[in-house]
Every structure is written in C-alpha cells, then in structure tokens.
Specification:
Metallo-beta-lactamase, Chain A
Length: 277
C-alpha cells in the first residue's frame, strides 16, 4: 500500500560496496536515489513497498561507480524512467554501458523539480567523473544524502541545515583500515580527499551540526565490510558524543546495513512530525 498522502517515507534498500539504493516516497510519488542493486532486486524491493517501478519520478545518481549504478540503465530502459545526474556522471555511465537510456542532467550546484520533489545537487569529492550528493525536499521535509566522498564540502554542510534526515558516509575505522589487509595504494586512496569518510569524519560533521543547528536524524552509511562494523560505527558516535559533552540531544543516529534493506524514516504532515524506525 502507498503511504497516506501527507506521509513521507524514506527506505534504505542497501548502503555499501555491495550496492546502494534509497527510496523516497511522498504520498503517491516516489524517487530512487542511486540504483546500485540489480534490476530484479530493485523491482522486487519497490513492489514490496507498494511502489510500481514504472511510476518512479526518476533515479538520482550520485556518480557512476558500479555499486551506485548496477541496475540504473536496465531499470531506466525497462520502465522509461529518467536517470538524473551530472553530465559527467551520465556520459560516463552510458559509455560504460554502451547503450542509451532516458536521462536528465543537473548541474553539480543546480536545482531541478522531479515530480513533487525539489532536488538540489551538491558537490562531493570522490574519484569519479563529476560526483554529487543530493538534497531532496517536498513540503516541509528535506533529505540530504552523501556517500562516497573524501570530504564533506561546504555546500553539503549548508544543504543539511534544516534537513529532516541526513545520510552521511561512515565508511571505515581509521585504525582498522591502516592495520588491515588492503594494499597500501588502496589504503591511501580511501584516506585521500577523493576517497571515503571515516567514522571520525562523520562524527566530526554530526557533532558540529548538532552544536550549531540542534538535533538531527542521521543514518551512518556506506560502511566497509572489512574496515568497519555497524556496532563499531555506532559505538564510536556514542563515545564521541558523550566525550564532547553536547547539550543538544540528537533526535536519532542509526546505521544503515550494507547488503540488505534496513532503516525506514517517516515524516507525517507538513509540520514534519518525525519518527525513525
């Protein structure tokens, strides 16, 4: 069944190197953010949540790496759904795939309307053609999403102000990565400005946001299966938050699972009464 008309629901279908996909549903309209699962898996998970794939308003693509686009072109071609991303992302993806699909370009600092949704792209720093994060808004609700980024840009930090939900990368524990099995060249890439955010970097961002703007609902996302665990990421956040002695309490900080559906966020009415499950 569809959510009631004044309800907004965000479903994390997967968040990690195995695949990334988040479904945003607002009444009878829906939007997919990244499509890194296979097309059959995406179709199945959409239908389980009462969403017919052919009625998606669009698929937002952060960048062209396979764990974010695995099912994008097949889904787009099968159901005539526009793929929405920067020119660099779309051109690189279609070249990789060797076939066309319906597309719609957005500037890396641009804003567009997609059905009932307002979509704002914000720059990220990753070793991809032209990567971005997104702020997706409808009514009084806003969802900010940035994974696969070595830093959180000022544009993304600003976009998170007033957001109802933020999904931010917490890819690795720095100590676990440095002393883990990866080759040095891979470790250097992950730790670079165009790599991935650590638990420490994610917590730095959340603590600064809470201090400046008050409570936040956040999903720690895109955890490594080798260099992190959900318990490690969440415990690190709790220790940092306690150690900082923050006066403002976060509304909720949870961990998205990397290889299966996990978190669901609901916002009801335009006054944005929030609940996180």
């Amino acid at each position: 069944m569809h959510p009631v008309d004044n309800e907004i629901v965000v479903h994390c279908l997967a968040s990690g190197s195995s695949g990334n996909a988040v479904l945003v549903v607002a009444g009878r309209e829906s939007l997919l953010v990244d499509a890194g699962l296979g097309v059959r898996t995406i179709t199945r998970e959409l239908k389980r949540r009462g969403v017919a794939p052919e009625f998606l308003s669009g698929v937002l693509l952060t960048h062209e790496h396979i764990d974010h686009v695995r099912g994008a072109v097949p889904l787009s071609r099968r159901y005539k759904i526009p793929l929405i991303g920067t020119d660099g992302t779309l051109q690189t993806l279609l070249t990789q795939e060797g076939r066309d699909a319906p597309t719609r370009a957005v500037d890396s600092r641009g804003e567009i309307g997609v059905g009932v949704f307002g979509v704002r792209a914000v720059r990220t720093t990753h070793d991809a053609a032209d990567p971005v994060g997104f702020r997706v808004s409808v009514g009084g609700f806003a969802f900010c999403y940035a994974t696969d980024t070595g830093t959180l840009t000022p544009e993304f930090r600003e976009a998170c102000v007033g957001a109802s939900l933020v999904a931010v990368e917490a890819n690795h524990d720095i100590h676990k990565l440095r002393f883990g099995p990866y080759p040095d060249i891979v470790k250097s890439r992950i730790l670079s400005r165009e790599g991935h955010l650590s638990n420490n970097a994610a917590c730095d961002f959340l603590l600064a946001h809470v201090a400046d703007h008050g409570p936040i609902c956040a999903w720690l996302s895109h955890l490594s299966d080798v260099n992190n665990t959900p318990r490690m990421a969440l415990n690190y956040w709790k220790k940092r938050y306690t150690a900082e002695g923050c006066k403002a309490s976060p509304a909720a900080v949870e961990v998205a699972l990397r290889d299966k559906p996990s978190l669901v966020f609901r916002a009801r009415s335009r006054s944005v009464q929030l609940a996180l499950f």
